[in-house]
Amino acid sequence: MTDSRVPFRHRRRILWGENDPAGMVFTPRFLDFCFEAMQFFWSDVLGINWHEMIFEQQIGAPMVHIDIDFLGPLRTGDPLEIEVRVHKLGRSTIHYGFTGFGASGEEKFRATIVSSMVDNVAVKSVPIPDTTRERLEAYMGACDAA
What we know:
Layout: E1 8-13, H1 29-44, H2 50-55, E2 59-60, E3 63-70, E4 79-89, E5 93-101, E6 107-116, E7 118-119, E8 124-125, H3 130-145
Antiparallel strand pairs: 1-4, 2-7, 3-6, 4-5, 5-6, 7-8
């Protein structure tokens, strides 16, 4: 895997309704930004449709651990690029690293999120499907080489 999507970056702008009364992004929205970037990463890089995985294959990937550091404010209209990396794979877990960049490339936040592949019917963890694991490993290798 060698293309311009490595490392993958999701681009967006901060919307009016994402701010608190002080005019800065409301803290919980940062998790939404990461989850949004994760969904685009899965479709654009891994070629896996999130909706189909959850509703047709009955496999989910809920977050089981979150760690986030806030490094600078974001306000309505500010551009935001969220870089998605995969740091580690477990039997059923995926350890992501997210970095949010502002207009001048300055870091606005860093987050580590661990998700677990789960059988939505049995509500228990399952191994990462082989095809998905292969794609994630290829992406990790491409990021290391970039």
